[in-house]
Design goal:
This is Galactose mutarotase. By secondary structure, the chain is mostly beta strands. It is built from no helices and 29 strands. The strands form eight sheets. A nine-stranded antiparallel β-sheet has the order 10-11-12-13-29-25-24-17-22, with no helix packed on it. A six-stranded antiparallel β-sheet has the order 16-27-26-23-18-21, with no helix packed on it. A hairpin with a 3-residue loop joins strand 10 and strand 11.
Length: 329
């Protein structure tokens, strides 16, 4: 099956964004070369989008800069915007108070990626980062592969390699709304984790049990009943894909998320505001229009030696796999 590749629009600097449409089984996905972004995802028989996105390039230059994108090279926060790498201290321009969030203005979510390979049901995008880009060491090659496995699974594989020791924690950052409505108030969520990282000023503390707390999602809970969420759930240690989360809408669509990552960041979307840009449903997104489920390593790992390491040694490959399986009642 030949690849469906078209122009999507241009950035303010004139660079062209391409969109690749993937089709197989019951799924249709649209992926942008800007940030390797999942711009749209549709399930046959369900006449609304399942992820947040926009048809306007300008939306991704600001309000929706991380929406659906691959974020990194280090996703989430680095406390104090500083880290020690290969016995050297590095400082980065903070963009979240005093911290670095999603690698700041030089993150891969803002880059135009190259199309390395494309077919009708899969695409591999690549970006090459020069040594020092974003403040991190190493000439790095980062790849993101999207593939649809019938009947209705979207597979994402992220890889990275570097010629020097560096830090890598790539994450896919989609916002989900399985109902096609203005908020996720009709959704319920379960996460297979018995520990969570509490936070102070947005930065993680030592893991604590979810038992007896309102953050216990081992059994599905309605999203409106949950406390404010922007937390990492500590998943069982495994190098293999396993189901870690289940999201269900009130209109009959269910998402099962599998990953081999050790953490799942859950963000409730309370600060979403895409105005003046409309989303895929025709109206600007507002608070709680979607929920972000982000498989990744744990945040602020360079400042927590007991957290899973995000160090990538020179010449080795970093790899993460995630599967999103959709079904309809």
């Amino acid at each position: 099956m030949s690849a469906d590749i078209r122009d999507f629009g241009k950035l303010a600097n004139g660079r062209v964004i391409r969109v690749i449409t993937l089709r197989a089984g019951e799924l249709t996905a649209r992926v942008l070369t800007l940030g390797a972004t999942l711009q749209d995802l549709r399930l046959a028989g369900t006449p609304w989008p399942l992820v947040l996105g926009s048809d306007l390039p300008g939306a991704y230059a600001g309000r929706l800069s991380w929406c659906g994108a691959v974020v990194g090279p280090v996703a989430n926060r680095i406390g104090g915007a500083q880290a020690r790498i290969a016995d050297q201290d590095y400082r980065f321009p903070p963009n979240d108070g005093e911290n670095l969030l999603h690698s700041g203005d030089d993150g891969v979510s803002g880059l135009i990626w190259d199309i390395a390979e494309a077919t009708g049901d899969a695409v591999t995008l690549q970006c090459d980062l020069a040594h020092g880009f974003g403040g991190f060491p190493g000439a790095r090659v980062i790849r993101a592969t999207y593939r649809i496995a019938p009947p209705a699974t979207l597979e994402i594989t992220l890889t990275a390699q570097s010629d020097r020791e560096t830090l890598v924690n790539l994450a896919h950052h989609p916002y989900w709304n399985l109902d096609g409505t203005g908020t996720t108030s009709g959704h319920s969520l379960s996460v297979a984790a018995d520990r969570i990282l509490p936070t102070a000023d947005g930065l993680p503390l030592a893991p604590v049990p979810v038992e007896g707390t309102p953050y216990d999602l081992r059994r599905a809970q309605p999203l409106p009943d949950l406390p404010p969420l922007d937390h990492n759930y500590c998943l069982d240690a495994s190098d293999n894909l396993r189901p870690v989360a289940r999201l269900t809408g009130e209109r009959g669509v269910t998402l099962v998320l599998e990953t081999d990552a050790p953490g799942l960041q859950v963000y409730d979307g309370r600060a979403l505001d895409s105005a003046p840009y409309p989303g895929l449903t025709g109206q600007p997104y507002k608070a709680h229009a979607g929920i972000a489920l982000e498989p990744q390593l744990w945040p602020d790992a360079p400042n927590h030696p007991d957290f899973p390491s995000i160090v990538l040694p020179a010449g080795q490959q970093w790899r993460q796999e995630t599967r999103y399986t959709l079904s309809r009642a």
